[in-house]
Amino acid sequence: MSAMTETFLLPDLGEGLTGAEIVRWLVEVGEAVTVDQPVVEVETAKAMVEVPCPYAGVVTERFGAVGEEIPVGSPLISVAHPATAPGRGPTTGTGTDPADGTGTGTGPNGASRANGHGTLSAPPNGESSGGGSGQVLVGYGTGTTTFPGASPPPPPSASSAPARSAVAVISPLVRKLARDHGIDLRTVQGSGPDGLILRADVMARTAPPTPAPPTPASASPRGQDPAGTALRTPLRGIAAAAAAKLSRSRTEIPDATCWVDADATELLAARRATELPLLALLSRICVAALARYPQLNATFDAATNEIVTLPAVHLGFAAQTDRGLLVPVLRDAHTRTTRELGAELARLTETARAGTLSPAELTGSTFTLNNYGVFGVDGSTPILNHPEAAMLGIGRIVPKPWAHEGELALRHVVQLSFTFDHRVCDGAVAGGFLRHVADRVESPLSLLADL
User: How wide is the angle at C-alpha 48 spanned by C-alphas 47 and 50, nearest 5°?
Assistant: First the structure.
């Protein structure tokens, strides 16, 4: 009786996610795992997460190499029950499709079955096809593993040659790419471990060759391009998702930006007095302004030509990390105290820099606060975080000459910008919101009137 093996498929890791890139395997083939033990770390378009396996047993197969992207619903890992886990030795693949390396074979009752790596064959009704050990051979790509249950095929004769060669590829995505572009995977040299064919290997075959630039008369004797070769960096994971979202925002949303300078001297004094982060105070001001102008906590539904005003404020804020720009979401900001806002901002920022934000912590924002002043710039006209209708920008706070109480004084001044979807509001509403924010920045104690 063959071993009982469960194959765990890559689950849906968040709304709108279609795949994930393997960052690091946490288990090895032959290693025992328990239920809900993390087995692989993957990067999606929204976050880096550890994926737990719902099965217990011994790992018999890992699908995908580090750096490879696999689609949701594809095999991720196979686990055999400990009592019947097969030993796995060298394996060979047979009967592979020349385009995608998919193997097929015959299962019970003569049914054909494919495992994506080699062949599985057994005689109808489990009967032996001739003398032998009564075993079935399963091909994985580089050798064979035997299980009880059927007779093995006869050994190949010296004069016979296999009709097709094995293909070192295990990712369904790689096979699909090869099929779509008409590439014979047997002709592709894999760059992964043990010659494994990765997505990049197939993509390299699909890209047209870059023509060499003309060689000037003053070129070096070897005829080399003195400028060197252009570097191409593919966008993947979060960077690719951000690029797509920004392009969509710029294409679909008719945005506009207004800005104003404000005296932030009293705001800095409030920060020292309360020992709260500056971003927490700015978040409190932002939430208070949205309570005054709720129509800006909205989105535009182009399908129905309707403005959808949202009941809760889920405040997104831009956070720069080693993995690029992320927008963590501070949920239900309208229900939190200023101290609670500060604590949650600190937690989300730390989690973002550690690369462990969950998809839920990166989705669902209704309004974004963009503190680009940390980069030492005064102003910006940012692209809206689709599908939001507005974004408040905070520039750097610097000492400047300022008219204060009828006299020229050195004050700490900040430039505030407000970018908005012009379908959702007009300039009067946008200007009113920004002026309200500026007034609270200049006089934080005025917030008490709104409590």
Answer: 130
Report the distance separating Cα 317 and Cα 312, nearest Å.
16
Residues known to be catalytic: 422, 426
Residue 171's pLDDT is 55
Alpha-carbon gap, residue 277 to 415, rounded angstroms: 19
Residue spans of the domains in the chain: they are 238-450
Q: Which residue in 181, 153, 152, 187 sits closest to 169, CA to CA?
A: 187
Q: How far apart are CA 316 and CA 279, in angstroms?
A: 12
pLDDT digits (tens, 9 = 90+) for 262-278: 999 999 999 999 999 99
Quick one: which of 57, 96, 93 has its CA closest to 78? 57
C-beta of residue 427 within 8 angstroms of C-beta of residue 258: yes
pLDDT at 3 over 80: no
Q: What is the pLDDT of residue 229?
A: 87
Reported as half-sphere exposure (CB side, CA atoms, 13 A), residue 158 has a value of 0
Full DSSP string of 66-120: TT-EEETTSEEEEEE-TTTPPP---B---SB-TTT--BEEE-GGG-EEE-SSS-B
Q: Is the pLDDT of residue 172 over 60?
A: no
What's the rounded Cα separation, in Å, for the pair 26 and 28? 7
C-beta separation of 247 from 339 below 8 A: no
Look up the CATH number of domain 238-450: 3.30.559.10
Least confident span in 128-137, 368-377, 413-422? 128-137
Mean confidence (pLDDT) of the chain: 77
CA 420 to chain centre: 27
Q: Please name which of 114, 74, 124 lies closest in space to residue 94, comparing C-alpha atoms.
A: 114
Model-wide pTM > 0.90: no
Greatest C-alpha distance within the chain: 107
Q: Omega into 444 within 30° of 0, i.e. cis?
A: no
| Phi, psi dihedral angles at 210 (to 5 degrees) | -80, 120
